[in-house]
Structure formats: C-alpha cells, structure tokens
Structure to design on (177 residues):
C-alpha cells in the first residue's frame, strides 16, 4: 500500500471508525458494510474467532486479507515510513523473533522500546527532531480466558492496564443468521 495525500477535512475520524468496528459483534462484517467515503485511509488488524485479518481502506477501496494467526507480523505506517524503511523494520522484527525463541508480552514491549539501528528518525521508538515521535505503546495480550490491554504513555511516563474476561472461542463456528 502507498501513502496518501492528506485531505483538509474528513467526514469522520478513522479512530471513531475503529471503535464502530470494534464494538460490532462481527467486526469483519462491520468492516465490509461500513461506508468509508471521505474517511482517511487506514489499516486495521482484526481478530474474529480464531482468525486474523488485515483490513485496509486506501481511500478508494477496501481490502480484506486473512493472515496466519500463528505467524508474527509487524505493520508500519506507509504515511510515516518509506518502503525501504518498512523493509528494514520488518528485518528487525524477523531477527527479533528468530533470536528470542518464545516471545511473550515483555519481549514485545522490549522490541517496541529498543528495536532499530540507531537512526532515531526510523527506529521503532521514533523521534524526528522532537516534532514527530512515538507518544505511546499499546499492547494487547490475549490468553484463553482473558485479554489485558496495556497502555504506556511515553510522554508523561504513565501506564494503565485494563483486563477483559471472555469465553473461549471455538476454532470454527457454524453460525446461521
């Protein structure tokens, strides 16, 4: 996907679109049905049951791609990083996965704090002349019985955690509507 020209205004914040999709009992159906005309392009990672999807709105059309739920992936903003930098960030992530064996939430958090090659303008914890920089790290850790959402405020040093309990989802459901 390629970077887009930012419009002077949009019909609705894409962050609110995320909440609309997140609140829906079937987020994939919500993404497929939601009207996105005059909404800024975005990429959203959706887990529904035991399936993982990359949902992309490029400003003209939606693309929904199923991802291997067991294969670690990294996403980088096409508006912030060139294709070369995105490829480097992918290499850092692949090296991180290869070198860490079992990866847990603490490993992922460490990656977000320290991964890169010393180029602060493109490291995972990015800072471009104190004008554009990483302001927070969010981490969702899911287990069979619950999910924990961690938020780390990098500007003020704050952190919060919210725990959600849920019923285990079967690997496949045959829902009839």
């Amino acid at each position: 996907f390629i970077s887009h020209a930012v419009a002077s205004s949009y019909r609705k914040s894409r962050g609110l679109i995320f909440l609309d999709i997140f609140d829906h009992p079937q987020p994939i159906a919500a993404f497929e049905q939601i009207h996105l005309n005059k909404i800024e392009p975005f990429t959203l990672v959706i887990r529904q049951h035991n399936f993982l999807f990359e949902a992309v709105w490029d400003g003209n059309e939606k693309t929904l791609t199923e991802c291997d739920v067991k294969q670690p992936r990294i996403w980088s903003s096409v508006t912030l990083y060139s294709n070369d930098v995105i490829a480097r960030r992918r290499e850092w992530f692949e090296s991180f996965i290869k070198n860490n064996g079992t990866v847990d939430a603490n490993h992922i958090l460490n990656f977000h704090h320290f991964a890169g090659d010393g180029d602060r303008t493109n490291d995972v914890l990015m800072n471009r002349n104190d004008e554009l920089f990483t302001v927070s790290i969010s981490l969702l850790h899911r287990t069979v019985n619950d999910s924990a959402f961690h938020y780390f405020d990098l500007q003020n040093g704050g952190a919060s955690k919210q725990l959600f309990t849920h019923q285990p989802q079967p690997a496949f459901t045959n829902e009839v509507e």
Notes: Residues 73-133 form one domain. Confidence is low (pLDDT under 50) at residues 170-177.
